Amino acid sequence: AGVLSSLAVSFRLQMGTSCFGFGLWFLWRLASQKSLMRPALSFGLGIALGLLPMALVDSLTFGKAFLPAWNYFQYALSDEDGAGAWGKNSWTEYLVGFLTIWYPPVSLALLPLISWGLWLSPVLGAIVIPNLLIHALLSHKELRYLSPMIPFWTLAAFIAWEEVERRWPALSQRLPWRFLQRYALLMAALNIIAALIVINPQPYFYQKVNNLYEAGTLPSEFTFVANSRSGLSEFYMKHPEAQPKQKLLLDQFFERLTKSQLSSGAYVLQRVEFDKLALVTKHCHELYNSISPWKQAVYRSTGKLLKFRYFDGIYTCSVSP
Q1: Mode of pairing for the β-strands spanning 265-273 and 221-225
Q2: What is the pTM of this model?
């Protein structure tokens, strides 16, 4: 149990809230035993063993074990870099997403079943409820953060329906249970597949930043430019001395660039519309672009589709007034 919990956290840092709840439930179940020390130590040893792969990968990639996780934790506690750059969402954001994205049009039917199932199964409640509460409190919300919870609350819905069949068999026969059952399984499978196939390119981008810094091409102080997630670069930087000296929104960057008010220096740009690449290369020297030259040629040939293409890049700019 300890190994699986720590591996879940390694796979998705937000799972730490669920694993904490699961750990409390696990210790609560063990409290009825005469000897609590031995199983508790075994659980703790499993956690330590499960964290070893994460520590090894971080040490080899970033030079320090658990550096991305620690930085992520710090930003979460500090309202994620002031929340202004990340955006603020209502605490109801995930509820709206559940009703409109995950299981429409049967969301309203599943919601009471899931709630009841979490009550009937304390272990599922311990896994799901802390995760939902913490994510509802954080100002920045994305539906993918809750993707790991989809299997658990789908299971909770099944547990609740079994209870409906047991208590009110006549009622359960009249309701379209088989459709609801198969639909919930289908939507859960599709959401899980979507969560697994989405690849986050940002660690690769920041590995390039690290490589350029180590080669002496990128100075230790640079300006990070993005429309959001202005603190994300620190998650992947393995050199404490190489950190953004300033953070700009993309609109601010291009306003200063066009008015020749941009300070000379190195700039790390994230998620820029491709049709603005020509303006950047006109004033700045390109050290890296996430889109290969042949892909750039293809994108230019698409004309109106340029606004739907984005690039990450590293540049040194020297703009004269």
Answers
A1: parallel
A2: 0.60
